[in-house]
Amino acid sequence: MAYPDSSTFCCSSRFHCHGFGRNSQHVSGMIRRRNTTTSSSKHDLPSDVVEKLPRGSSDTAIELVDGNFSWELSNPTLQNINLKVFNGMKVAVCGTVGSGKSTLLSCVLGEVPKISGILKVCGTKAYVTQCPWIQSGKVEDNILFGKQMDREKYEKVLEACSLKKDLEILPFGDQTIIGERGINLSGGQKQRIQIARALYQDADIYLFDDPFSAVDAHTGSHLFKECLLGLLSSKTVVYVTHQVEFLPAADHILVMKDGKITQCGKYTDLLSYGTDFMELVGAHKKALSTLDSLDGENVSNEISTLEQDVNVFGTQGSKEEEASKDRQNGKTNESEQKGQFIQKEERVKGKVSFSVYWKCITTAYGGALVPFILLAQILFQVLQVGSNYWMAWATPVSTNVEPPVEGITLIVVYVSLAIGSSSCILARSMLLVTTGYKTATILFTKMHYCIFRAPMSFFDSTPSGRILNRVSTDQNSLDTNIPRQIASFSFIMIQLLGIIAVMSQAAWQVFVVFIPVIIVSICYQQYYIPSARELSRLVGVFKSPLIQHFSETISGTSTIRSFDQQSRFQETNMTLSDGYSRPKFNIAGAMEWLCFRLDMLSSIIFAFSLIFIISVPPGFIDPGASFQSGLAGLAVTYGLNLNNIQALMIWNLCKMESKIISVERILQYTCIPSEPPLVIDENQPDSSWPSNGEVDIQNLKVRHAPHLPLVLCGLTCKFHGGLKTGIVGRTGSGKSTLIQTLFRIIEPAVGKVMIDNINICSIGLHDLRSRLSIIPQDPTMFEGTVRNNMDPLEEHTDEEIWEALDKSQLGDEVRKKEGKLDSKVSANGENWSMGQRQLVCLGRVLLKKSKVLVLDEATASVDTATDNLIQQTLRQHFADSTVITIAHRITSVLDSDMVLLLSQGLIEEYDTPTKLLENKSSSFAQLVAEYTTRSKFSFEESDDH
């Protein structure tokens, strides 16, 4: 009887242990390499865009000669730019929306491809973007930005940026962890942290892109005085602004229009030139003239009838004191529970629950196909053993022995059994693929649904890297590995039972050899599994910050390059990559540890089995007749393979438990608490709701998370239907939080909000949000076309869209584009300026025309002339609507019927603008006085000319 030699089994063992699934891994590796090659082959920005001069080698900080720059070579963005900025100069850049102001700063940074011209820059740079870029992490780390801590300088920067009061409010001061994109900070706080980051760098050249639009008048004046005219008095500063009152202090002013510098010079000189600059100053002066019209005779009768209601709020000092006490009590009682806004990623420890396996198996069709898969494998195993048994029984031992059956019968039966086993394999594979696909689809759909229906607090506290990790890496493992791994373990178990069945017929004595194998294999498995399981969990945990950091780096490339911080970010990326690779390497090492021991065990048992078979007397294993020798040989052959099957079974069991971690992590995201229902059938408002638009806020208390302090501390006020209400207050006072509560982005902790006598928490989210309109603080545009962005639900005709674009002052700009309404919009609207994005959002609400309209800093990034036109459009088209306006631009608020002033989550003042201005000691009057004082110099200069 001939047996395969030991090398065959060793090779087989190594193949099973290391080669299982290598084909798919090889293909994945090839695809990754191809993608990496494609990405790395993309050209960087040419190094000759900017000629960098050694620090201190020239008295000229920035020099631009005949510069032509373009984001797209077919359409120059900036043309014939000539500019010379000497060291220590303050240069202001102004102009209408989309005139190229931000692009000019990007050119100085070397971010825009150069068509022609010469650009020289001497010295280090610091850049403050128009849309704040904030890293996840501590406030302190965002300000230091890689620099060593200098406590004295740090404190000066905090004071200059008016950040100390904000840090006192934050739970952990400057050690508070900021969420992704600064999600737990107000727009003004993010902007001031950006400015603080730039100031701390102590650069030679500072580039500010509209730094004062997101802050109130007090803070804006403080920033301009303490930062630009104080700490940066000896530095070169180029700042873009729409606020004319900040222009007179500049040494040089650039007026831009249609990508060209149309005027340049000192403030007084430009006033005498007229044209474009005078239009900007004239629009600003016209806006401020609103102040003069605010007297008692000009107040409408409707407002006067409401003054009695307003006066009630003036006598509610006790309620405000009570709310203040509630706020303080909230802080005290929660001081022990209060934690960071961003929590560590949840990681299960210990053995994977059986429910995870059960959920994975029964998700598709309730597990109905699983028995059929197992049945197909059992039939395959029976037919395979049967075919081998048939060949062993029907094949003569030697030529001297007559075969039991004819040759044709032997072949027909063997082929039939082979076809049957192949059919079982086909059926098994189809059922397995169907089950695996259905399981992956169902779990992904559930996870996808739960993520998209999760409350905003989930996204506030969960970095995108964690979400992307689960929907990519973990889902990929579920798609490609886990069903196969579970099936492989089951199939090997059935194969093992088949071997035992064959051996029991003729060579049961060989079982004695493998009892130690079972014991040792189980010991290996018990020793390996805990480490491999926790390492697999660590891989998922360590990959999330890597993805998040990479995503943040991509979005902040211009800031990173302007600060010359590329090497630090590369080093951080490598550190995070090492952190992710470390458990991956340990997993591979642990797997090698297991495979090596299983291989050694296999080789030892194989050698021992051969010695055992050769040494025992012939009749001990084959006591029967000569025609049974083939069966005995078959049994012994199966027995010799038993050790490999046992090793492979242990390997698959270990691999399965390490892979099932992905299902465990996916199931965590299928249990995310959901937002309230979109529609509540038994409590749907009428189609005409809200008909009046009255908003009644009663004892409203709001916090961003259960473990965080209150942000709104018992607000009680009423926004009367059809009136315009302006909301003002220091950055971080709770203005945007109030708006988020109105849309139920954040649910009230206490109190309620009534709109036309309906509690907004009693109706579905879709019914509420579809009846309201908002222009958000951070304007959003989606990748696609202008038409898709203006009318995402395709409810309006092109004529209506064009009409809305004209009303929002964007019609002419869109008509210039080749595609008109089909013009391309890149991701996040990157090919549109911030002001243009705000105007697109305005166009959306003009198409919708809701009874309640909310403007959250809707015109912060547009010039005063455009703002005046927008305000006129809103007055005309929303005359009978309730308009709630959050604005730092005082002229926008003065146009309101009522003004609400918030301070630290409380109502400080609420009355008509006239009443508030009559009281010179009111906070609102002081805010307006600050604004007018700031503008006084510019108007005096204007009047002189």
Automatic annotation (TrEMBL):
PROSITE patterns, sorted: ABC_TM1F (PS50929), ABC_TRANSPORTER_1 (PS00211), ABC_TRANSPORTER_2 (PS50893)
Location of the protein in the cell: Membrane
Region (Disordered): 315-340
Reactions catalysed according to its record: ATP + H2O + xenobioticSide 1 = ADP + phosphate + xenobioticSide 2
Species, as recorded: Phaseolus angularis
Family: Belongs to the ABC transporter superfamily. ABCC family. Conjugate transporter (TC 3.A.1.208) subfamily.
UniProt protein name: ABC-type xenobiotic transporter
Keywords from the UniProt entry: ATP-binding, Membrane, Nucleotide-binding, Repeat, Translocase, Transmembrane, Transmembrane helix, Transport
